[in-house]
Amino acid sequence: MIKKYFLSLVFLSFFTNALATELGTPVDLKNSKINLFPTDLENISLNKLKFVSGIEIKSNHPDFGGLSGLIINEDKSLIAVGDQGIWLTGKIKINENGKLVEIINGRLGHLKGNENNPLYKLGKSYTDAESIEPYNDKFVVSFERKHRILIFNNIYSHSETFYDKIKYLDLPDNGGIEAMAPLKNNSIFLLSENLIHPDDKIAGYLLSDNKLKKVYVRKRGSFKPTDMSSLPDGNILLLERSFSPVRGASARISVIKYEDLEPNSVTLPLTLDTLKPPMVVDNFEGISFLKLNDGGYYIFILSDENFNFLQKTLLYQFYWDGKL
Q1: What are the DSSP calls for 216-278, one per residue?
Q2: Domain at 26-320: CATH architecture
Q3: DSSP assignment letter at 187
Q4: In the predicted model, is pLDDT for residue 14 greater than 70?
């Protein structure tokens, strides 16, 4: 009897530890308030957006960082993926004044391949996750270097290849499918970072039934796409970044109209706002939103600190009334 009881405890302990590993490791996320504007410039107004709140996120976990794609769900749960093949989950906490104050219940794990093994075991070229989007009650994740899109039943599960013919396109090694957005016709809009035609057209694609149709986004200045998120009306939020050693980092938030996404067309995004110095700006690579009862939105953008001590992981919250 004692032996059976002991064996049961061993099995239960093994099962519990296996489940904990499957669901990732709890991570202590340290959140501190950060302002978009330096103190003496807080009266500067934006164009279409209103800055609501911002936090800097830190963790002692060695794999924390390099965050790119972002999803924030209606229940305020958060999912992000990172350059080293990791995922991060948690929940954003918004106070009674509607301001983002912290991320709680953080967990971190590793994205898995089709044999349920962590992608990092295949090498760095297989781990460079750039975008995550919901698709048919699952998740699709795009990767650079080894260009492909994988699909996951949930963020903890193993993956299957969703589309890998991207490798036959002329995508730069570190400038592939940086942004994705599922469309209301059940296709997926893919947008490259660095495949830019001489006539200032950024290469994009409409993926449907395992086939690609070309579509283009007009390049404006030095900005390049980093993420997208599909709004309930079918339009798409677009996040872009720009960086130069002289001017520093900038970010731009725009809207692409759904009806403009026709095969072989060139769409011109509608700018909501541009963030640039002396505002506090970093390498923003993730965008998502929460729809509000007044018809407006909270828009969230997340930065990738590239595991560089000079950069920060920032999560900013803006209010947009939904009007173009």
Answers
A1: EEE--TT-EEEEEEE-TTS-EEEEEEEEETTTEEEEEEEEE-GGG--TT-EE-PEEEEEE-TT
A2: 6 Propeller (2.120)
A3: -
A4: no
Q: In percent, how much of the chain has pLDDT > 70?
A: 92
Give 23's strand partners.
none
In this model, does residue 2 exceed pLDDT 50?
Answer: no
| pLDDT of 36 higher than 70 | yes
Percent helix, percent strand, percent coil in the chain, to nearest 5: 10, 50, 40
**318: number of Cβ within 10 Å:** 23
The full set of domain ranges for the chain reads 26-320
CB atoms within 10 A of CB 215: 23
Q: Which of 299, 306, 301 is nearest to 321 (CA)?
A: 299
Residues in the chain: 324
Residue 116 DSSP one-character state: S
The number of helix segments (H) and strand segments (E) in the chain equals 1, 23
Is pTM, for the whole model, over 0.90?
yes
40 pLDDT band, cuts 50/70/90, is low
Whether the link from the prior residue into 62 is cis, omega within 30° of 0, is no
Q: What angle do CA 292, 297, 303 make, to 5 degrees?
A: 130
DSSP string, 41-72: GTT---SSEEEEEEEEEE---TT---EEEEEE
Q: Which two tokens stand for residue 175?
A: 């400038």
Residue 280, H or E segment: none
- The pair of structure tokens assigned to 111 is 């994205």
Pairing of strands 211-218, 266-267: parallel
d(CA 22, CA 18): 6
